[in-house]
Specification:
Helix content is about 70%, strand content about 5%. With about 290 residues, it is mainly alpha-helical. Keywords: Membrane, Transmembrane, Transmembrane helix.
Length: about 290
């Protein structure tokens, strides 16, 4: 046990040398990637693979003129490649701050990496065929793929629940304001997962219009009717937004921890309020940005 603690401490020391516990300036992408590569290698390499496939999607945008629901068939896999890669790197880094054993970290990292890789490969495969990946029950095979996507998402939601509980229960290797920000970030991510469940239950993301109506550039959020993807997007990325805000504030402002926690709470509440509003807006069939 002492040897294990020594290894964990050594890893954390290495992490702090790379990033600096309280240093905003230490948060540089290159260093962050080095930490993830060193301490969460499976997550790192899966993120790299998905990013490379995302580059393939960019290539597809230029050479393939097929469209699906009004946009190029490669746009959706591209968007998911970016979102999933960011999430993987986030988990790969944050998990180094939990006082887990190396075995527990490896199990969580493997579960997260493999389920999200399989999820993305289904999206990529269905995109390459020019058919929908989500809500697609056109054939039994399409339905099975969609079902597996739901299973993979469900497994990841369980890991999020674990992170929520452990962020509240354990002492992370970060300052108290940052730990509180991570906790609030995970809570809002769970809200985003629930919004995802709303889309699955109605087999679509639009309200008041059919999926595939005219949308905003790249994100393709509907400008004609409600679109649940807006709230889903902001909620899922709260786990990056809120902790980064807390780390920035901790570096820029010489405030007491209690004050920082209060400001982080207000910031997270405002973000949650905004997400709640755009969700309500979408449910009324109102576009996030009207054309």
């Amino acid at each position: 046990m002492e040897q294990l603690i020594s290894i964990v401490d050594k890893n954390d020391q290495s992490s702090n040398e790379y990033l600096g516990t309280n240093s905003w300036t230490g948060i540089k992408l290159k260093r962050l990637f080095l930490i993830v590569k060193d301490q969460s290698p499976i997550v790192y390499w899966v993120a790299i693979i998905i990013s490379l496939l995302g580059l393939g999607c960019v290539f597809g945008l230029f050479i393939d003129d097929r469209t699906l629901l009004g946009v190029n068939v490669w746009l959706k896999p591209l968007k998911f490649s970016i979102s999933i890669a960011i999430y993987l790197i986030t988990v790969g880094y944050l998990i180094t701050k939990y006082p887990y054993s190396n075995k527990k970290k490896a199990i969580i990292n493997h579960i997260t990496a493999w389920t999200l890789l399989l999820e993305f490969l289904i999206i990529f495969y269905q995109g390459s065929k020019g058919v929908q990946s989500h809500y697609n029950m056109a054939t039994p095979f399409d339905g099975i793929l969609f079902m597996f996507m739901g299973v993979f998402v469900g497994i990841n939601v369980l890991t999020m629940v674990l992170f929520v509980a452990d962020t509240l229960r354990l002492k992370l290797k970060v300052t108290r304001p940052v730990q509180w920000a991570i906790f609030l970030g995970w809570l809002i991510v769970l809200l985003g997962s629930w919004i995802g469940g709303q889309m699955i239950s109605q087999l679509g993301h639009s309200v008041g219009v059919v999926d595939g109506e005219k949308g905003l550039p790249f994100v393709n959020w509907s400008v004609k009717g409600g679109d649940l993807r807006v709230a889903h997007f902001f909620a899922l990325h709260s786990i990056q937004i809120i902790p980064l805000f807390a780390m920035w504030m901790g570096h820029k402002r010489k405030l007491r921890h209690r004050t920082q926690i209060l400001i982080v709470t207000v910031f997270a509440f405002m973000l949650a309020l905004m997400i709640g509003y755009v969700f309500y807006q979408a449910k009324q069939g109102i576009p996030f940005v009207a054309s």
